[in-house]
Design brief:
mainly alpha
Length: 181
């Protein structure tokens, strides 16, 4: 949503030149790639569930202001907001694969990771920018993509909170025993 939709948002909604939007996006993709291993090391120290709850909370509270400023601010603030989205998504990218691996039994891990990761990102990551642009154009609600991302972050926060309680209670091991049996 963030890295694919922002250039479209900036060119179609903000009417920035395509070259400026793509240069900004490329710069922040590079920042994103550099930060993932750094945040991965931090996530190993903090823990997957706690990190997921922290980043989801940050997305819940920061997404609407970021999209507001992307739409209404000058270019310097737009660049700052894109950088902030890049950092937030890098933390997210550092958390999710390890967390999925942690909660998935060893004997189905590769299959689950391949299916969940690739199908999930393919469907939701691939269609979301188009749907967000369509809804924004039809409704004229510029902050609609921000509301969508906030909603998804809230669902993630609730899911991570419930999953961490299940994991702490040892119910994941009970579920794994059922799969093994």
């Amino acid at each position: 949503m963030c890295l694919c939709f922002c250039p479209v948002f900036l060119t179609q909604i903000r009417h920035l030149p395509e070259s400026a939007a793509l240069i900004n996006n490329t710069s922040f993709l590079i920042l994103h790639l550099v930060l993932i291993p750094v945040f991965g090391l931090a996530v190993n120290n903090i823990g997957g569930y706690k990190s997921c709850k922290i980043i989801s909370s940050l997305f819940v509270f920061l997404t609407l202001p970021i999209y507001y400023f992307l739409n209404n601010a000058n270019n310097d603030i737009v660049v700052f907001c894109l950088g902030l989205l890049s950092v937030l998504t890098a933390v997210n990218a550092a958390i999710i694969p390890g967390l999925i691996a942690e909660i998935t039994p060893n004997y189905v891990r590769y299959t689950v990771l391949a299916l969940v990761f690739n199908i999930g990102f393919g469907i939701f990551g691939g269609l979301t920018p188009s749907i967000a642009l369509l809804l924004t154009n039809k409704s004229h609600a510029i902050l609609l993509p921000g509301y969508y991302l906030t909603f998804v972050a809230l669902v993630t926060l609730i899911s991570a909170s419930l999953a961490s309680k299940t994991y702490k209670a040892g119910k994941c091991n009970e579920i794994r025993k059922i799969y093994i049996a």
